[in-house]
Amino acid sequence: MKKLLVGLLIIVFAAGMIFTGASCKAESSSETTAEETTEAGGEEITIEIWDWQAGPAFDGAFEKIKPAYEALHPNITIDRTGYNLSEWDELIKTGLQSSELPDLFGLYQGPQLWDVADTGILYEWDDAINADPEWKANLGKTYGIGGTLDRNGNTVAVSYDIFYIGCWGYTNVLEEMGKTEEDVRALKTMDELADFAEGLKAEGFDEWYVSTGFLGQYMLRELFWTFIYQQTTPDDYAIKAEFMQDGVKWTDEEFLNACKAIQAMARMTREDVLSLDYQTDHYSIMLNQEAWGSLYDGPWATAVLIDNPDAINNVFGFFHPPVIEGAASNVWAADAGQILAMEKDNPNKDAVIEFMKWMHSEEASSYMIEQLIHPAGKFPDNWKSLVDYEIYFKLVEMFESSDISPWICYTAEIEAALIDNLTQVFTGDATPEEAMAAVQQVTDDYWAAQ
Amino acid sequence: MTINIFRNKRLQNKLEPYTWLSPSLILFILFLLYPIVFSVILSFFDWNGYTKNIFTDFVGWKNYLHLINDPLLWKSFRNTIFLVITVVFIQNAIALFLSLVIYFGKFKFGNLIRALIFFPGVISAIVIGLVFRKFLAIDGAINQFLEIVGLSGIEQAWLSNQSINIWIVSFVLVWQWTGYNLVIFYAGLQSVDQNLLEAAFIDGASLTRSIFNIVIPLMKPIIFLSGMLNFIGGFRIYDMIWVMTRGGPNHSSEVLTTYMYYQSFQSKGPSDMGYASTIAILLALIVIIFAIIRVRVVSRQEN
């Protein structure tokens, strides 16, 4: 009896293993068959999208984008999931390794885009864009923007939107503290801005600080880039430091000045911003006007303000005093916001290309503009009638009328070292000289090892 | 009728145990042994986590040498040791004290008290971390309480304070897991020979004297076991740190587990899977050493 049971156990176990393996193979075979049928018969296609733009702006835009596109293409379903940036690396890495990436997936500009592009899996969009003059015209100067290019200058991702640094203040909050918009606009340097904030703190106002954006450590880097661009030409100065070109070093004066501006930022920041769930906290601070302004926010972040009429109707843009006196004040870091890539062997490639082309059309752009996103595509002629917020007009004008340069690093180790060291400058744990020397050391070591 | 699966009965007898073990063995190999071997091999390579060809960039001992020269690693290691020591000593001390009080106090609701103290241990660390994070926020309950009692001078963003945030996380861990140790100690107390205690009392020994001279010596193996379990568990703490501070600000509360995540998967991090595997090996070696010590001490005690 015992032997019979043992035998049965072995048979059942083996059968289970065989069945499981066969059913997996059968599933993948049936999926392939379904896809082939779909393509051949023009039947239902689902375009699956992952991006890291979870939040009211893009969620709101897609509430209109999805039905609009599906009405135009009844056989296509748009399935978009917005994630948070903090989990993005993990998501992409595991998706890549398990070959479970969706049709369109976001990538973060800089090291992630370059590292994924180096795997050779990404579709290059240049031929498709250049073959369609209307599409190319719709993209305008956002085509070829730095964050969408691989190391060879090929467009391996296309952008939903454009993101750039802006800062603003609330006239109503300032007035309650006995200050005005003109007082802020008259400030000549970041140090003066910090002195202004500390003066409010000394007077005992709870709203004394300028919330420095969703201050993940990496956001320090983006502001840092703006401070560099205010001082330097050519505007690829930071890239030269990263790639050790033309003798440019992280220890140069421009970088040290930018670090000093970071130190000034620390004097304007609520002390808990760095360690907590900064993104949520910052939006709450902005929405509830717990600060008199915001030192860092791109256009789509203004969508948060819509829920508070006092916030959205009293906000003005003052777009940085310069990092030091005499530096330019009309240059800032800007790049593609959310960028989307596709695998080159995607069976739904044609449908995805058509979708992205439409995403850059006036219709799709209008849905984004309504959510205060700056679309990467064409603005409709009547765009100013779609929104009624002065701050949005100012942000768009700023982008259209100025030089822009990306805020990104391109090598993960150097980027991580820069972010860590800028954080130490911000928290007062390192001087600008120490921090930049440390970044230079990492840069030297990195290239020596290549 | 009998069925011989194998013609050779001897072979069948030999293989039979493995047949019964095979489901667990397969799981062990798939989910434990394979990842460990994979990590060991990966620690000798450079890999950013994106390429499908994982083992192409052999770097030899570079990652291990990097361990020695990496100041952030040593910062994480110091924080881990700090966390482990405070958790082991403070948690066990409090648990032992409470178990003695409850055991010898013979309270009417002793079981209820034990359950209440144990209760935090069954709540998810994520939930506890989020709740305490809210309490400790600059506008949280702790600061509001301090203001009410006239101590607004020490109000601060507690978790942003690089000097004390690791202490605060330790406190939360102690609060969560003291009940777990208490249950172990209470069970140990119940195994203490009551005759010894009665004899001591008859001889005039005080309760305190009896506890220190009889109870605690008899409970040494249990205290040691509890300490070692905490020690090993302390090295694996990740969730509480991640929820409360994410290892920041400025890596001030980074521990080995979160630093491993930072190196491998954190957005805007170094994306260095090889080095992260090296850290994992280091962590595993530390835990294995203490596990071996525990086994040897326990078996010596049993002998």
Describe, in plain words, how this protein is organized in 3D.
The complex is a heterodimer of chains A (450) and B (303). With 450 residues, chain A is of the alpha/beta class. Chain A folds into two domains: 45-160 and 337-379, D-Maltodextrin-Binding Protein, domain 2 (3-Layer(aba) Sandwich), CATH 3.40.190; 166-335 and 406-449, Periplasmic binding protein-like II (D-Maltodextrin-Binding Protein, domain 2, 3-Layer(aba) Sandwich), CATH 3.40.190. Chain A has helices spanning 2-41, 56-72, 88-97, 111-118, 126-130, 133-139, 171-176, 181-185, 190-202, 217-229, 237-242, 253-266, 278-287, 309-314, 349-359, 362-370, 383-386, 390-400, 412-427, 432-449, and strands spanning 45-51, 76-82, 104-107, 158-159, 161-164, 168-170, 210-211, 293-294, 315-317, 332-336, 339-341, 374-375, 404-405. In chain A, helix 2 (56-72) links the parallel strand 1 (45-51) and strand 2 (76-82). In chain A, helix 10 packs across helix 12 and helix 19 packs antiparallel against helix 20 (432-449). The N and C termini of chain A lie far apart (67 Å). The model of chain A is unreliable at 21-41 (pLDDT under 50). Chain B has 303 residues and is mainly α. Chain B has a two-stranded antiparallel sheet. Chain B is flat. Chain A binds chain B through residues 3-4, 6-7, 9-10, 13, 85-90, 92-93, 96-97, 108, 111-112, 115-116, 118-119, 216-218, 270-277, 412-413, 415-416, 419-420, 423-424, 427, 429, and chain B through 2-5, 12, 16, 19, 22-23, 48-52, 72, 133, 137-138, 156-157, 159-160, 162, 165, 245-246, 248-251, 265-272.
Note the overall shape of chain B: flat
Strand order in the sheet with the most strands of chain A: 2-1-3-11-4
Note the total helix count of chain B. Answer: 13
How far the N terminus sits from the C terminus of chain A, by CA atoms, comes to 67 Å
| Rg calculated over all Cα atoms of chain A | 25 Å
- The CATH topology of the largest domain in chain B corresponds to MetI-like fold
The low-confidence runs of chain B, each spanning 5 or more residues with pLDDT under 50, are none
| Discrete helix count of chain A | 20
Main sheet of chain B: which strands, in order across? 1-2
CATH class wording of the largest domain in chain A: Alpha Beta
Sketch the major β-sheet of chain A.
5 strands, mixed
Overall structural domain count of chain A: 2
